[in-house]
Amino acid sequence: MNALVGERLSIITSKAQTTRHRIMGIVSGDNYQIVFSDTPGILKPMYKLQEKMMQFVIGALSDADVFLLITDVFEDIQLEPEYIEKLKNTKIPVLLLINKIDAATQKKVEQKAAEWKVKLPNAQILAISAIEKFNLDQIMKKIIELLPQGESYYDKDTLTDKSERFFVSEIIREKILLQYNKEIPYSVEVLINSFKDSPEILKIQADIIVERDSQKGIIIGHQGEALKKLGTKAREEAEKFFNKKIYLELFVKVDKDWRSNDNRLKNFGY
User: Fold this and answer.
1) Using an 8 Å Cβ cutoff, are 221 and 227 in contact?
2) Whether the Cβ atoms of residue 27 and residue 6 lie closer than 8 Å to each other
3) Domains of the chain as residue ranges with CATH
4) pTM here?
5) What SS3 class is residue 43?
6) Hey, which of 139, 193, 194, 243 has its CA 20 to 30 A from 164?
């Protein structure tokens, strides 16, 4: 979605389940408005958080005018049979985008396209490179052709439905995904407690929520070095995003089983 919108709205890592929320990216032209909806990847829920994530997916499936299923030439996505059937039987146009073709051979791209044609015979399969921006113009033209006519939902200068606080929390979570291994990133949530903006500096205080004391120790690291490194990386990325100086203060707190608690999940926006 970032490449199509032209703004970095969704965090990106190589880890599964990077996206947890439904994030809208809005592109407005002279005679069109496209509302992209980036959802979590499709999976079989194992706990409450993942159930909430799949509700975002179901919501997108129920109100979309065009489906974009994005995979890449090296990825072997195993969709749940029920979702395969929904996409096979839907009357809504399905565009299947095979990304990262800049790093693959033509034979590999054709092989991957053939595999998906068997799974989703009605989908239009298009090869792209988001990093090289290859075929993105064609994707945009195709989406505009497929969209129904209607009034704009948002002002022309609106880029997303999410708040600035949300993007700070996502930047911090992205750096956690990149810095820590194994189960740590999936047991973590970020809560922005204070967001004070002024012309000179943006002051932010955030809590990193984990499930166990052992995880808290890993996040903080020896003599606080890991947390300090995390804070520096997140602050630098946030300063690029907001284009201003930022003071970022991070705390680590334990909230046992937050991923399975409906009330806690609601507080986190799920």
Assistant:
1) yes
2) yes
3) 2-146 (3.40.50.300), 164-267 (3.30.300.20)
4) 0.77
5) coil
6) 139
